[in-house]
Amino acid sequence: MFNGIVIEKDEQGYTAKVKEIDNNDLPEGDVTIKVSHSTLNYKDALAITGKGPVVRKFPMVPGIDLVGLVEQSNSERFTVGDTVLLNGFGVGESHWGGLAEKARLNSDWLIPLPKGITPRQAMAIGTAGYTAMLCVIALEQNGITPDKGEILVTGANGGVGSFSIAILTKLGYQVVASTGRLEQTPYLKKLGAEEVIDRNTLSEPGKPLTRERWAGAIDSTGSYTLANICASTQYGGAVAACGLAQGMDLPATVAPFILRGITLVGIDSVMRPREDRLEAWKRLADILSPEVFEEIAVDINLIDVIDVANDLMAGKVRGRVIVNIS
DSSP character for 152? Predict the structure, then answer.
């Protein structure tokens, strides 16, 4: 038996609680992992609170990120004692995830823990930091270099936003952070933002084209915000879109694309090929220094997760939440 968070849905309703799980109930997979750390992401909070249709089958163990030691392996890729890392692949949605003391997974979903990163640091980064790195790589691939001008980061107080600011700053970019919590300005400037703006300046319906400002942007909000970012991006600029916190609609026109030649790049982190994952994590290990993790992350235990999930949904959580499992 081992402990984990289990989400259940029956005629009596939707529940999430910490309970004992039998080893025999673990799902199919060729690698069994003793989980040391997981995280609490926005998607996990949606699943735990039932405020979003995240869970696709019940019962479900949430947790889209995990790191731990291989306890049993039928894969040629990993052996007992290896430290492995997982982000995405529907784990915590359609396959049991990382918010439990054990997980059984498909080895194709796993990568080795990168050298230079501890298990705790890997979960401080988690899907949020990994997604942020994919966004930065996309900007680089579209020719956005530090000399081109300002880079806008929306949802700046969240995990993706916080890591985007830290990564871009380390690489020499000039970052402008957009947030709905201006009281967090000192935190965002400590991460490296040179300017902090109110998200309301971008979140309302705007014009098809406005004054060119951004050389590039990383947006986790969608809707009017993303439309306004495109309308104010410089000629030849690029915008990496990775979220829908404001909405999944895009009330924009083709004007920025056909008159200014901007590029809108969609960033998927869930089903990303193994090669992209290895590249992103290697870059993260090379770029980020330990003090970044202390600024961005807080630690909780498995027993705290459900309460903190409710706080996250209420907008009371900043940055990343590491869950110490073992």
Answer: E
User: Angle 201-153-115 (CA atoms, 0-180°, nearest 5)?
Assistant: 165
Pairwise CA distance, residues 205 & 251, whole Å: 8
Distance CA 92, CA 76 (A): 25
Q: For the chain, what are the domain ranges?
A: 2-113+292-324, 127-266
Prediction pTM value: 0.92
Give 144-175 pLDDT, tens digit per residue: 999 999 999 999 998 899 999 999 999 999 99
Query: What's the pLDDT score for residue 11?
Result: 86
What's the CA gap between 126 and 124, in Å, rounded? 6
CATH number of this structure's domain 127-266, picked from the four choices 3.30.70.141, 3.40.50.720, 3.10.310.30, 3.40.50.300: 3.40.50.720
Mean predicted confidence (pLDDT) in 19-30: 96
Please tell me the total number of residues recorded for the chain in this structure. 326
